[in-house]
Design goal:
The protein is 36% helix and 22% strand. By secondary structure, the protein is an alpha/beta fold. The protein folds into three domains: 159 residues, Hotdog Thioesterase (Thiol Ester Dehydrase, Chain A, Roll); 220 residues, TIM Barrel (Alpha-Beta Barrel); 36 residues, no CATH class. The strands form five sheets. Strands 11-12-13-14-15-16-17-18 form an eight-stranded parallel β-barrel, surrounded by five helices. Strands 3, 4, 5, 6, 7 and 8 form a six-stranded antiparallel sheet that branches. 42% of the residues are buried.
């Protein structure tokens, strides 16, 4: 249904925040191509090809009749996708690539289109927009694939609804590393940039003793206001709701956000929807919120809690086990259920999920093995307690060159109708996984904004 963003502009497309990777839209409108379409488009674009204009000539070709101009087909495919996808929500089209026409289109063919969201990421130069790659697939009435094309669009973020920007739920790029720095050690902040973390968290909770909370808050905020650490995002982990320090932490974070010293907060021990709502009211519009699910109640209610769409979420294994009264082991089987449940709930809510910490900060191989397991579960990144862990996290949570090459081979095989790659069958699920690998590798989005 068409709506308006400000009472004047028609909007039926999807905002950037609504572009969840893997979503497939089956467009409602179909179109029968006519001979007039073909002749008019071809002559308007100054194309003299007799294959499109001369019926006598075309009768002598292998097709036996005029072909529809492929540029018209491409334009029609894009146009049919607009109402449900980009009407009123696109800033500009940035490019077309991987365009193919597997079967010809003739006058009288009826074209229908489906579109898959292949990748989506915040724009690096436009904070009010995001870059989305779509794959359009068009079929005729005989269910033959007649066109496949990837289109990159710069998409608007959604307007304010119910008092806050809807982008607050998904505008933060999925971090591979969340590097924690003790709030009482502001001297460490200038050094964190050497590790190049995707996000750095100044921790006022676990890293600060109760008697030092007030001092740590003051010194941390002063240090952040004086010099922002070099990282993709800078966050402040406040003390949990209900503690004696939470309100003052939140007020300090709001001031730091307003001064652009930080981008938002980490909310630990998230257990009730009202807690996230209260934080959103207290912080400036657009502030980022990473929520920690690290208690029995938080894990048990993960689906409901993450449906509120914080910018990201993490699973805190140590606090979870402590809350249950269990024991931590090297194998980690005691947290496997909770670890998986949080990742699943995050995926279903479209929230990037960060995996548990490894407290043995100098045991690199232990961290690597734990990160690999987290990636296999479905996590997008990992908590890091030491700069040494950042590089490992970035390596593990990015596709390897071998994975990228394999993904390309799978898609190439699928295009050719080949059913086997490296001795293994290729079907629809493998194609979907391959697209996910290439999207994670950033293919198709480089240099576009």
């Amino acid at each position: 249904m068409t709506r308006t963003d400000d009472g004047t502009r028609p909007v039926s497309g999807r905002w950037f925040e609504e572009m969840e990777v893997g979503t497939v839209v089956h467009h409602a409108t179909r179109r029968t191509v006519t001979e007039t379409d073909n002749v008019l488009f071809t002559t308007m674009t100054m194309n003299p090809a007799p294959l499109h204009l001369d019926a006598d000539y075309a009768a002598g070709t292998e097709f036996g009749r005029p072909l529809v101009n492929s540029m018209f087909t491409l334009a029609l495919v894009v146009g049919l996708s607009v109402p449900e996808l980009t009407l009123g929500t696109i800033v500009a089209q940035l490019g077309l690539e991987e365009v193919s026409f597997p079967a010809p289109v003739f006058p009288g063919d009826t074209i229908r289109v489906e579109t898959e969201v292949v990748s989506a990421r915040p724009s690096r130069s436009r904070p009010d927009a995001g870059v989305v790659v779509f794959e359009h697939r068009a079929r005729n009435q005989r269910d033959e694939l007649v066109c496949r094309a990837r289109r990159t669009g710069l998409m608007h973020r959604g307007p304010s609804r119910t008092g806050r920007d809807v982008s607050a739920g998904t505008s933060m790029a999925p971090p591979r590393s969340l590097l924690f720095v003790p709030g009482g050690r502001p001297d460490l902040l200038p050094k964190v940039g050497r590790a190049h973390p995707d996000a750095v968290v100044v921790d006022l909770e676990d890293a600060v003793a109760p008697e030092a909370k007030e001092t740590a808050r003051q010194t941390a905020i002063e240090a952040l206001l004086a010099a922002r650490p070099e990282a993709g995002a800078v966050l402040l982990r406040v003390n949990p709701p209900g503690t004696a320090w939470h309100d003052a932490d939140l007020a300090a974070a709001a001031r730091a956000c307003a001064s652009a010293a930080i981008d938002g907060i980490v909310l630990p021990k998230y257990e009730r929807v009202a807690q996230l709502a209260a934080v959103r009211v207290a912080l400036p519009e657009g502030a980022r919120i990473v929520a920690g699910l690290e208690t029995a109640l938080g894990v048990a209610d993960a689906r409901t809690l993450l449906a509120e769409r914080p910018d990201a979420a993490y699973f805190g294994a140590e606090d979870y086990v402590a809350d249950l009264g269990g024991r931590r082991t090297a194998a980690g089987t005691e947290v496997l259920y909770a670890r998986s449940a949080v990742c699943l709930a995050a995926h279903l809510s479209g929230v990037p999920a960060l995996d548990q910490a490894v407290v043995a900060v100098h045991e690199r191989e232990a961290f690597r093995a734990d990160a690999e397991q987290g990636r296999c579960i479905g996590y997008r990144g990992k908590i890091c307690l030491h700069p040494l862990q950042v590089e490992i996290a970035h390596t593990v949570f990015a596709p390897s060159p071998a994975e990228v090459e394999h993904a390309r081979a799978v898609l190439s095989a699928a295009e050719r109708g080949v059913g086997v790659v490296d001795g293994r069958m290729v079907d629809a699920v493998h194609v979907t996984m391959a697209r996910g690998v290439l999207a994670a590798a950033g293919e198709g989005t480089r240099g576009l904004d």
